[in-house]
Structure prediction request, 236 residues.
Amino acid sequence: MPVTTAFCTSFKRQLLQGQHNFTNGTGNTFKIALYTSTSTLDATATAYTATNEITGTGYTAGGNTLVNVTPTSPTTTAITDFADTTWASSTITANGALIYNANATNAATITLGFGSDRSSSNGDFTIVFPLADATNAIIRIA
Amino acid sequence: MSEGFGSVGSFLVKTTNNRGFSPEEITEDLLTKLIFISTESHPAIRDQAIAFKDQIRPVIVHYMKQVVRSDRTTLAAQLSKQGHHDMAEIIRRL
Prediction:
């Protein structure tokens, strides 16, 4: 089974231990790595791994650094999000992604399953994150 | 996707072949984040929000195209200054 979209279990524990800071500018550095369809990343992921990570033109191992959206709590739900990220002028194929904290021993936060292989060929590969509100944000804690 | 305590929102993966994204395509992503119209909002408010969205769309596309053109001018000027006149001309004609 390829990468599935999930909120990592270890991330839940680490939030309660205060290991992650999503504040824009002063918080931790979060990165997003892309994976092939051979990867089985899911809620049990605990850290970034190079196993089954994609390779290709325009992609560097470890992935892109994300721009954090400072957490807010617009309702009883707390949220955080990221700015869209692009692998420009790339020729790559990916089936899923892992967002991890580069400042916390590369601890896994969430996994994103694309549902199928997605490819760019001498073009752009972009992940468009949702609107940062209580019903859409990429990471929500209700 | 909901897993009780925490949820992961919906995201999109967009790709291109042999080109980048156009100002029109990027504008749609931008508008989605600038103006979110809930399906549950009052019809009058929803109509007004949709009208506003439609009104600012061409303005944003126009200025995005200006940015692209201006950046190409800078690139062409730099290439020309370095003696790469052929490449500068290619950039100018894009």
